[in-house]
Amino acid sequence: MIKERIGNSAGEWNSEMTLVISGSAGRLGKVHARGKSMKRVLILILILVISTLASARDKKPKQPQPGPYVFTSKASAQTLKALIVQENLREGYTLDSDNQLQFRFSMPGQLPFMDSMFTITGICQGITTRKVWSYSLAELNGTTKIIVQPVWEYPDEDCKIQTREFIWSRPEELAAFQAMLDKAPISSAPAPTATPAVASPATAPPSTPTSATDQQQSMKQHAACLELAKTNPSIICK
Q1: In the chain, pLDDT over 90 holds for what percent of residues?
Q2: In this structure, are 32 and 132 located in the same domain?
Q3: Is the same domain home to 81 and 140?
Q4: What is the DSSP letter of 8?
Q5: Structure pTM?
Q6: pLDDT in tens, 133-146
């Protein structure tokens, strides 16, 4: 009896252990499946975040860059030069140098705060900080290319002139300059005019008919003209 009970108890214990183990395996399988699902979700979220950041980077406006700035126009170089000179003089700039299609303007100015922190001003007699605009024009195949380079000129601690590029950062000014170039008059080559030949007195035709034949021919032409004038009042016979 004892052996049977022990045997029965052992069998029951083994059966219970088997059930527990099988139940644990099922739960582990579920946990593993949930882990895979969560992994997929995290990957999708990561892809969305990366796509959003890339899209925001692409939509971010480009920062303006220092010159030179290049423009084009159909007008002649001389016409554009006259417009540029007029515009700079109107704004208070002084024409420093003029070498045909290469010229520059300047006016006294103050370096931006961040740049002026590393410079010494006011110790060099007769040398001041200036804002400079240089222009270079070139014609090719009916198009004029305009190169604009703005810089600061300032004295260093040894009173030697240094240059530093500055950014033409206002889009409205860039657009206005291009609009001025586009509105410049395009000069066309004048058509050659024929010089009337001056007849010598010996060969000059008489102003009035000198023969009876000429007089008759003139009368016929006048009569024909009058006939045409009857149907077309705009015809005037002389």
Answers
A1: 34
A2: no
A3: yes
A4: H
A5: 0.53
A6: 999 999 999 999 99
